[in-house]
Automatic annotation (TrEMBL):
InterPro entries linked to this entry: Barstar, Barstar-like_sf
SUPFAM superfamilies per the UniProt record, alphabetical: Barstar-related
Entry-linked Pfam families: Barstar
Coiled coil: none
Family stated for the protein in its record: Belongs to the barstar family.
Highest taxon of source: Bacteria
Domain Barstar (barnase inhibitor) stretches: 1-71
Name recorded for this polypeptide: Ribonuclease inhibitor
Length: 129
């Protein structure tokens, strides 16, 4: 089983999450994935970067409890509010709904969404440290 380590100490916000993902998964590629949850999900399907399709991977996320905060409620609200600045690109009704859910305490944070994306890949075992 291939072991891949995410160094949570390198993650302080959503931007640095993607920098860390690119450092870990795309180190041998001449290009990097965009700051997109869809791109992160595609990366986990494999075929480029450090993942080769359906191989079994043990993904170790160090300092994940700290990242739960750094990718938590306030960064997620800022993430969605920033998308509202580009209504020609993003579905504003969807985003407003996500903001409302977060404010009511029922929405998923960026960290929660990332964990769900990883869980959708049965060949990847996530160990949070």
């Amino acid at each position: 089983m291939k072991k891949i380590i995410i160094e949570g100490k390198n993650i302080t916000d959503i931007e640095t999450f993607y920098k860390e993902i690119n450092r870990v998964f795309m180190q041998n590629e001449s290009w990097k994935i965009a700051q997109s949850l869809d791109a992160f999900n595609d990366l986990l399907y494999g075929g480029f970067g450090e993942t080769n399709g359906k191989e079994n991977i043990q993904l170790v996320w160090k300092n994940s409890e700290e990242n739960k905060k750094s990718l938590g409620l306030q960064p997620t609200l800022a993430f969605y509010q920033n998308k509202l600045k580009s209504p020609e690109i993003f579905n504003t009704n969807f985003i407003i709904n996500k903001i409302d859910e977060l404010e009511k305490g029922t929405g998923l944070t960026f960290f929660d969404i990332v964990i769900e994306i990883i869980a959708d890949h049965p060949n990847i075992i996530l160990l949070k440290e």
